[in-house]
Automatic annotation (TrEMBL):
Keyword annotations: ATP-binding, DNA-binding, Helicase, Hydrolase, Iron, Iron-sulfur, Isomerase, Metal-binding, Nucleotide-binding
Helicase ATP-binding domain boundaries: 181-438
Transmembrane segments: none
InterPro entries xrefs: ATP-dep_Helicase_C, DinG/Rad3-like, Helic_SF1/SF2_ATP-bd_DinG/Rad3, P-loop_NTPase, PDDEXK-like_dom_sf, RAD3-like_helicase_DEAD
Protein name: ATP-dependent DNA helicase
Species, as recorded: Pelomonas caseinilytica
């Protein structure tokens, strides 16, 4: 590992990072204990401050130097008239449930702040107060200790000495990395024309600290075209981290291939790359709890972490297999080793939730550590839907009923009240689907009482791990989005939809009486499991986010820059409005690398795929398929709006044109079946594969050359008509205008263009796209198709 010259470097570290590196010891303990939210933490801190004297100082900026280390941070509070420095931690439950090693970390932070303020103000001694404040009651538990300034300084210097060797290593790594990246050559020699335009736009946006929307077609090399300029900008813009975020798992494979090529081209290979994986994929003992008493890889985790961390940064290429090998060699958990290595990686590859989910580790750590973080978001046309899911939540009446027998008897009345409110609302509504302008107050109160009761139970039973805890996670998730409910989201109730969350609501029907006597809180009914369900159906309460920009806006503001790229991002305003991108977000539409004549785009002017016309148009539709196949034999994909429509078209083609080979996507395809479907597309093969638009084969599928020569698209990709879809349309029209098509036409056309993008995968490919609906001639539809398509 390269080290800097002895007198030429200074390494700045936060108090929190210094203490986490030097003071964490013992077991990993990830048992659930109800924790305070950020807002509750702020409320707890304000409650403490309100009780202090008028001269109480808060958020004190402090810093100190030891050798080459500059240590800085913000102390929570200092009360000069009693010479007391406080570290305030908002918690839920008794102080006794805080693990000993975490409490030791809190003391280390407080002592470090104590050393800094004592040196800054010339104090001979100082009273240190570790203040734990309960989020629910605002009650304080204060642990005090008076320490002489020399003892505080000695502890501070010892902590700095323990970190200084690592700091020298990291300063040397960063200097070598930046020097290498400043002269990084493009690994393929020269950039392609469209790739160069994309790379230049990414570099300019990063240089100016702006966000960029880049629409770039398949075939120009988007992955290298975005990673390369961002790596080149890393030294000059003093970026701490680059995050390459993907919406689908296949994107990570391409990112790692490109990153490996760039790393090998980097002089000295001074680049650390980390792949973040899901816990379910990395866990070695999925049946064991994450604490030292249960899992051997959690026992002594922090004692063995330093050696594993040292080996990992030397290895530098930290894909999942490398993380697993290093972790098991040192007897620690691979997943949590990866979480620790996030601090020391230069480039992080992972799913978009790491950056945009409320609990996303990459973004949240970047904020707490004050990193300059730049993001690349691949296949970004999926980000609207992915982000909507991150800020939405549901709760079914059936899950409340299932939880009742699991719950302690004192908790059951609150659960019955929640069930009562759900059932009463469902029974009173005249239709199967009902949207509410506001969250019903009685329902919100009942949910809050349930969460309070469950929270108290979890405080008193910190080792609880089962159905009750899973239900608590459900209700906490719902409470989180309910607390931030606004015009960006919808609140609705559905009957008969709990097992099919994405399905269209049922047709309206009459109000259904509910037997409320089963919901009494009378002790005689202590074993009741809740209400009789209306018509034997379930009830699903949903808070559905429609405009994720209400939550993502602050995230984009907290980044140095972000580049969102895809072949189907347009129109630019759709992404800006729904994702909350900054007003100065740049836009580039990279020209296609294919000559227009390589893709023959044809519209079936006399066909209609509207629901009411489908049966009558089937013969004409399959005639187009058969005629194209006869004139230009080869492999084709045919996309439909639903499995029902797909099945009818496939059956009609088989009956009218039995000589045309065909195979179909099924409703519940496993990995092997999906692979078998794609394996039918052999070079120079002949046949038609039937698939659903927006499904597994409509994007992220690479069938170059003669493996695929054409696509038929028998739909505009519009969502089915339903009361829910009408609510979404009304909300988006009200926010952004009725002529945008944000609720249906824009996302529909994105699916169409993605599906058509399966045909040309390289500059040498040639093929056909058939748009099987006369509506493709409409100006508003044509405007959303690629400009280079010649219809």
């Amino acid at each position: 590992m390269t080290s800097p010259e002895p007198s030429s470097w200074t390494y700045t570290v936060s108090v929190r990072s210094l203490c986490e590196f030097t003071a964490k010891r013992g077991d990993l303990d990830r048992r659930f204990t109800p924790s305070a939210t950020a807002l509750e933490g702020q409320a707890g801190q304000m409650a403490v401050i309100a009780r202090r004297s008028p001269g109480y100082e808060t958020e004190l900026p402090l810093q100190g130097q030891h050798g080459h280390l500059r240590v800085r941070g913000r102390a929570d509070g200092f009360e000069a008239d009693v010479n007391r420095l406080e570290e305030i931690k908002t918690i839920r439950g008794p102080v006794e449930i805080i693990p000993e090693n975490r409490r030791a970390l809190h003391w280390a932070q407080l002592e470090t702040y104590g050393a800094l303020i004592a040196a800054d103000r010339g104090l001979a001694e100082l009273e240190l107060a570790l203040v734990y404040v309960d989020a629910d009651t605002q009650h304080e538990t204060v642990l005090r200790e008076t320490v002489a300034a020399p003892a505080l300084q000695a502890a501070f210097e010892a902590r700095c000495r323990a970190f200084e060797a690592w700091a020298a290593q990291e300063a040397g790594h960063r200097a070598a990395r930046d020097e290498a990246l400043a002269q990084l050559p493009f690994p393929l020699g020269e950039l392609r024309p469209g790739q160069r335009l994309l790379a230049e736009a990414v570099y300019r946006a990063t240089a100016h600290g702006r966000c960029l929307l880049a629409q770039a077609p398949t075939g120009i090399g988007k992955t290298l075209g975005t990673l390369y300029p961002l790596l080149r900008a890393m030294p000059s813009r003093q970026l701490d981290k680059i995050g390459y975020m993907t919406c689908k798992g296949t994107g990570r494979i391409m990112a790692l291939d490109a990153l490996q090529a760039l790393r090998e081209a980097t002089p000295g290979r001074h680049l650390r790359a980390l792949t973040l994986v899901a816990k379910e994929q990395a866990c070695e003992h999925p049946t064991l709890a994450c604490h030292g008493d249960a899992c051997p890889l959690a026992r002594g985790f922090y004692d063995r972490l330093p050696a594993a961390r040292e080996e990992a940064v030397r290895t530098a290429w930290l894909d999942p297999s490398a993380q697993r090998r290093i972790a098991l060699q040192h007897g620690i958990c691979p997943y949590y080793l990866g979480q620790e290595l996030l601090r020391w990686a230069d480039v992080v590859v992972g799913d978009v939730h790491h950056a945009f989910d409320p609990h996303g580790q990459l973004f949240n750590l970047a904020q707490s550590q004050d990193w300059r973080l730049a993001l690349l978001v691949d296949e970004a046309h999926n980000l609207v839907d992915r982000a909507r899911a991150m800020y939405s939540a549901t709760l079914s009446l059936q899950s409340v009923r299932d939880t009742l027998p699991q719950a302690p008897k004192p908790m059951r009345p609150t659960l019955r009240r929640l069930a009562r409110e759900l059932a009463t609302l469902a029974g009173a509504q005249p239709a199967a689907y009902q949207a509410f302008a506001e969250v019903p107050e009685a329902l919100a109160d009942a949910l809050q009482l349930v969460n309070a009761a469950l929270g108290e139970h979890m405080q008193n039973h910190p080792l609880e791990n089962g159905p009750l805890m899973q239900f608590y996670f459900e209700t906490l998730s719902l409470q989180r989005v309910l607390d931030k409910f606004g015009e960006h989201s919808l609140c609705d109730l559905e009957r008969g939809a709990a097992t099919a969350r994405a399905a269209a609501p049922a047709e309206p029907r009459a109000a259904v009486p509910v037997n409320l006597s089963l919901l009494d809180d009378d002790p005689d009914h202590a074993e009741d499991t809740g209400p009789a369900l209306p018509d034997g159906a379930d009830v699903l309460l949903s808070i559905r986010n429609i405009v994720p920009g209400a939550f993502l806006r602050q995230r984009f503001e907290g980044l140095h820059s972000a580049t969102l790229f895809s072949a189907t991002l347009g129109p630019a305003d759709y992404q800006r409005d729904l994702l909350g991108l900054p007003e100065d977000t740049a836009w580039i539409d990279v020209p296609a690398p294919f000559p227009p004549e390589h893709l023959s785009v044809r519209v079936a002017d006399r066909l209609s795929t509207r629901y009411e016309h489908r049966e009558a148009s089937l013969d004409a539709l399959v005639a187009v398929l058969a005629r194209q196949f006869e004139e230009h034999p080869g492999n084709y994909l045919a996309f439909f709006s639903s499995f029902d429509y797909l099945d009818k078209a496939a059956a009609r083609l088989a009956r009218r044109h039995p000589s045309v080979p065909q195979w179909s996507q099924s409703r519940a395809m496993g990995e092997a079946a999906r692979r078998a479907f794609l394996d039918r597309f052999v070079p120079d093969g002949r046949g038609i594969g039937f698939a659903v638009l927006g499904g597994a084969f409509a994007e992220g599928v690479d069938l170059p050359g003669t493996r695929l020569i054409g696509a038929f698209i028998a739909t505009l990709g519009l969502p089915p008509v339903s009361p829910l879809q009408e609510q979404i349309r009304e909300r988006l029209d009200g926010l952004f205008g009725a002529d945008h098509g944000y609720a249906d036409l824009v996302p529909g056309m994105q699916k169409v263009v993605q599906a058509a993008g399966r045909v040309l995968r390289s500059v040498d490919d040639r093929g056909w796209v058939w748009l099987l609906d006369r509506r493709y001639r409409r100006p508003e539809v044509r405007a959303l198709l690629p400009a280079w398509w010649q219809l």
